[in-house]
Amino acid sequence: MKNITDSFVYVGHWPYAGSFEFNTDILATNPINLSVVLGVLIFFGKGVLNDLLDKRKQRILSTIRNSEELRRGAIEQLERARARLRKVEMEADEYRLNGYSEIEREKINLINATCDSLERLENYKNETLLFEQQRAVNQVRQQVFQQALQGALRTLNSCLNSELHFRTISANIGILGSVEEITD
């Protein structure tokens, strides 16, 4: 059996350039063809392959840089949002505390205003009661006076006769006469 390296080393075994024949030795021809194709690809394709790989590398690096910039921007936005959230939470706590104290102040003011209103109503009620008592006392006095006057008139009318009436008139005329003399 022939050695594969024999076909590379023994150049004299190859046919001359003027003749054409098929080489049926598969083990001898394939490695040569493959080595020639790979040599040509490496020699000519090296620059193209390097360019393609460099472009791909640049795209990957620019994508990584863009991603890093986007990540930094997102982190900055997140920090700003967290700072705003902390600020809003502090303001909410402040409003809540102020709101509670404001509610307590309003509650105390409402209680004080209600107490004042109740006190005024109590005073008004007392004044109204006093006024009504005085009015009732005055009405009772008037009624008692009228009844006393009517009783006195009835008593006088029942007790007075014409002789007593004549004597009373004479006594009054005498009193008036003495008063006239004194004034003269």
From TrEMBL:
<keyword id="KW-0406">Ion transport</keyword>
<comment type="function">
    <text>Component of the F(0) channel, it forms part of the peripheral stalk, linking F(1) to F(0).</text>
</comment>
<comment type="similarity">
    <text>Belongs to the ATPase B chain family.</text>
</comment>
<protein>
    <recommendedName>
        <fullName>ATP synthase subunit b, chloroplastic</fullName>
    </recommendedName>
</protein>
<keyword id="KW-0472">Membrane</keyword>
<dbReference type="Pfam" id="PF00430">
    <property type="entry name" value="ATP-synt_B"/>
</dbReference>
<dbReference type="GO" id="GO:0045259">
    <property type="term" value="C:proton-transporting ATP synthase complex"/>
</dbReference>
<feature type="transmembrane region" description="Helical">
    <location>
        <begin position="32"/>
        <end position="49"/>
    </location>
</feature>
<keyword id="KW-1133">Transmembrane helix</keyword>
<keyword id="KW-0375">Hydrogen ion transport</keyword>
<keyword id="KW-0175">Coiled coil</keyword>
<keyword id="KW-0934">Plastid</keyword>
<feature type="coiled-coil region">
    <location>
        <begin position="64"/>
        <end position="98"/>
    </location>
</feature>
<dbReference type="GO" id="GO:0009535">
    <property type="term" value="C:chloroplast thylakoid membrane"/>
</dbReference>
<comment type="function">
    <text>F(1)F(0) ATP synthase produces ATP from ADP in the presence of a proton or sodium gradient. F-type ATPases consist of two structural domains, F(1) containing the extramembraneous catalytic core and F(0) containing the membrane proton channel, linked together by a central stalk and a peripheral stalk. During catalysis, ATP synthesis in the catalytic domain of F(1) is coupled via a rotary mechanism of the central stalk subunits to proton translocation.</text>
</comment>
<comment type="subunit">
    <text>F-type ATPases have 2 components, F(1) - the catalytic core - and F(0) - the membrane proton channel. F(1) has five subunits: alpha(3), beta(3), gamma(1), delta(1), epsilon(1). F(0) has four main subunits: a(1), b(1), b'(1) and c(10-14). The alpha and beta chains form an alternating ring which encloses part of the gamma chain. F(1) is attached to F(0) by a central stalk formed by the gamma and epsilon chains, while a peripheral stalk is formed by the delta, b and b' chains.</text>
</comment>
<keyword id="KW-0813">Transport</keyword>
<dbReference type="GO" id="GO:0046933">
    <property type="term" value="F:proton-transporting ATP synthase activity, rotational mechanism"/>
</dbReference>
<keyword id="KW-0812">Transmembrane</keyword>
<dbReference type="InterPro" id="IPR002146">
    <property type="entry name" value="ATP_synth_b/b'su_bac/chlpt"/>
</dbReference>
<keyword id="KW-0138">CF(0)</keyword>
<keyword id="KW-0066">ATP synthesis</keyword>
<keyword id="KW-0793">Thylakoid</keyword>
<keyword id="KW-0150">Chloroplast</keyword>
